[in-house]
Amino acid sequence: MGGLLQNPLIIGCIVFLILLAGAFASWTIRQRLPEHHLTDDTKSLVSVSMAVVATVSALVLGLLISNANSSFRALGGDVTTLSAQILRLDNILRRYGPDTYPARETLRQYAKQKTVDLFPDEGADVRLDNPSTYALLQRLEDSMLELKPSNARDQWWLDQAMTLAGKIGDTRWLLVQQLGQGTPKAFLALLVFWLTLLFASFGLFAPRNFISGATLMLCALAVAGAVGMILELEKGFVGLVHISPQPMRQAAKALETRSNDMAGLGQNRSNKVSRSALWD
After folding, report:
1. Radius of gyration of the chain from Cα atoms?
2. From the centroid of its chain, how far is CA 245?
3. How many whole angstroms separate alpha carbon 157 and alpha carbon 96?
4. DSSP per residue over the chain, as a string?
5. Is there a contact between 236 and 242 (Cβ–Cβ < 8 Å)?
6. CA 218/CA 198 separation, integer angstroms
7. Cα(123)–Cα(214) distance, integer angstroms
8. Is the distance from CB of 117 to CB of 254 less than 8 angstroms?
9. pLDDT tens digits for 82-140?
């Protein structure tokens, strides 16, 4: 049950039913009310009162959509930044020299595992704080600390590499913190209550015909869709609308290709040495 209530689509359907129930309940209650409760003065009072609720609801709903969209775009930007930092770090280690091969291999493993953590296969959970992945990053930093720069050039490359490794770690924690900042459920429930009051006022004075019923249903569907979209954007890495996995997958693929190229180059050098020894 708890898992279903975490699904934005299910929550959107529940909101739709609640709004529709409020509208049609007041539509039905109207038939049982005495005529003096449905005067023009009463209609005017309800309309003015609900105008205040409608204004507040519209402002809050628009603010929540804007905030969710901003958070979604920020998460996407952080993922792109992380992939760029990983590629840049690999380039720096490559330019340092062959001594960085163990560190580059660890970086390749980290990029591959981080991609799986952020964008798992269907049905798996996103793991932003996977301890084994973070252990790879720490091992990468330890490997770089073991390097012994022989000149100022190597020292500069090593400083740059350590700075980038620190930024990669910072981005990891930033992703964890940003994804946990969703809309409070109590606040969302209050918004649904306001919207239900609003739709109840619509149904109270709506004429009993097909056009009125269809209009109320479509309006409820639109508002419920907006609420569902807010929750969908807040999930970030899973759902119908999610962060693109391409930057991380491309980075992991690029490191995998470079690793294979290095392995092939090392094998060729080994073969040449072996042939030279046979000729000697």
Report:
1. 29
2. 11
3. 6
4. -TTGGG-HHHHHHHHHHHHHHHHHHHHHHHTTS-GGGSSHHHHHHHHHHHHHHHHHHHHHHHHHHHHHHHHHHHHHHHHHHHHHHHHHHHHHHHHH-GGGHHHHHHHHHHHHHHHHHHSPSTTPPP-TT-HHHHHHHHHHHHHHHT----SHHHHHHHHHHHHHHHHHHHHHHHHHHHHT----HHHHHHHHHHHHHHHHHHHHH--SSHHHHHHHHHHHHHHHHHHHHHHHHHH-SSSSS----HHHHHHHHHHHHHHHHHHHHHHHHHHHHHHHHHH-
5. yes
6. 15
7. 37
8. no
9. 999 999 999 999 998 888 899 999 999 999 999 998 888 765 678 877 889 989 999 99
CA of residue 35 relative to chain centroid, distance: 53
What is the token pair recorded at 5?
A: 């209530």
The whole model's pTM is what? 0.79
Contacts of 13 (CB under 8 A, 6+ apart): 224
- Give per-residue pLDDT as tens, 35-77: 777 777 778 888 888 899 999 999 999 999 998 888 889 888 9
CB within 8 Å of 56: residues ≥ 6 apart: 194
Provide long-range contacts, Cβ within 8 A and 24+ apart, for 41-48: 43/205, 46/201, 46/204, 46/205, 47/201
Report how far Cα 136 is from the mean position of its chain's Cα atoms.
23
Say whether pLDDT at 223 is over 90.
yes
